[in-house]
Design brief:
Strand content: under 5%
Number of helices: 10
Number of strands: 3
Helix content: 25-40%
Distance between the termini: 187 Å
């Protein structure tokens, strides 16, 4: 076609020049017999050949409409590089000449081209087109859907977008106080762990016992049954720390037997260490715990007191019945040992010694009377 155009270039120029000249001279009656046609015959042949090459052939034999011809070439893409020759597209990055709804250069996904091949993940947003980890948060920065963790799949939507969120509460795991969503905070799960068993804050099936469901494990909960009485007080007074229906106030006779007094007409049955407690439970605690030692010691006091007194009376009678100095000396030695071992009171020991001296005087007097 190019060769025909080059060969026909000269005749076209001559046709234009000769035509103008003949027109000025008045022309000829018969164009076929005119010298112009005889000399410019190859020009008409070239025109016919060019027109024949420019008309496309279709297998169906139907003539092409002008509008169809325009549509086939309106995407400005050469047929050799157009990835979608049957549509009018403007994509330039992943594919050429395909539909690009948002005009960002990335083609919309279709049946033959998906996002894993490079299609636009966000076909309706010109500022976003890729999502490396497939969590539907964009890799492009500074957007309302920008992925804060672009290389790791995530569903978080609070503070950080597209980051790991194990319990699907939209809070990223790095900021979540309860990562596994089991209702027990990470800190309390660790605090409830012991040497024999460790609770895993990242495993929803690993959690400590929480009897009252207040999200505080029993291991660190001061009130396991949530009856407003500390477990230590309930254990101390004999009520069940795991039974919310039982408190120290209703432990006796099955009715409430006390209250906490705040002054005026204000009372309450909830434990308050700062308030004045007036209850049978409190009284029993005083009697059975705070005074139990003195009560147990009373018999001992009586035993010690009466045993010393009885020993004193026995020794006093033995001294009075002694007839010789030898007997008194023996009794005096025994009394000294008893005082040293605290078997008798010191006061009693002094009295017994005075009694010994008096008995010695009586023995000497009786001996003198007998000698006279």
């Amino acid at each position: 076609m190019i060769l025909i155009a080059v060969l026909c270039g000269g005749p076209f120029q001559c046709l234009a020049f000769e035509g103008n000249r003949e027109a000025r001279s008045g022309g000829f009656d018969n164009p076929m017999n005119s010298p112009l046609f005889m000399r410019k015959g190859p020009v008409w042949i070239c025109l016919i050949l060019l027109l024949g090459l420019c008309v496309p052939e279709f297998s169906g034999g139907e003539p092409i409409e002008l509008s169809d011809w325009s549509a086939m070439n309106s995407d400005s893409q050469a047929n050799e590089t157009d990835d979608c020759p049957g549509v009018n597209g403007t994509s330039t990055h992943d594919r050429h000449g395909c539909i690009d709804s948002d005009g960002d250069g990335y083609s919309d996904p279709d049946e033959t081209w998906n996002v894993s091949m490079g299609a636009d993940v966000f076909p309706d947003r010109p500022d976003a087109w890729s999502d490396l980890d497939g969590d539907l948060f964009a890799d492009q920065p500074n957007l309302d859907i920008t992925d804060d963790c672009p290389t790791r799949y995530g569903t978080s939507r609070s503070v950080l977008f597209g980051c790991s969120d194990m319990d699907f509460d939209w809070i990223p795991d790095v900021l979540d106080t309860d990562i596994d969503g089991d209702g027990i905070s990470n800190e309390l799960e660790i605090a409830s762990s012991g040497a024999l068993f460790q609770y895993d804050p990242m495993d929803a099936n690993s959690y400590p016992i929480d009897s009252d469901y207040d999200t505080i494990p029993d291991a660190v909960d001061e009130d396991d049954d949530n009856d407003f009485w500390p477990d230590t007080v309930e254990l101390d007074r004999g009520s069940d720390p795991l039974d919310a229906e039982q408190t120290p106030f209703n432990r006796y006779f099955g009715v409430t037997t006390g209250f906490f007094y705040y002054g005026g007409f204000t009372t309450d049955d909830k434990y308050d260490a700062e308030a004045l407690e007036l209850s049978l439970s409190g009284l029993m605690e005083i009697v059975t715990e705070e005074l139990v030692i003195p009560f147990l010691l009373i018999p001992i006091y009586f035993y010690v007191f009466f045993s010393r007194r009885q020993r004193f009376e026995v020794l006093k009678n033995e001294i009075s019945e002694a007839k010789t100095d030898k007997e008194l000396f023996k009794l005096e030695s025994n009394i000294n040992k008893l005082i040293e071992n605290r078997k008798i009171k010191t006061l009693h020991g002094l009295i017994l010694r005075n009694t010994i001296e008096e008995q010695e005087g009586k023995i000497r007097a009786s001996i003198s009377v007998e000698e006279e």
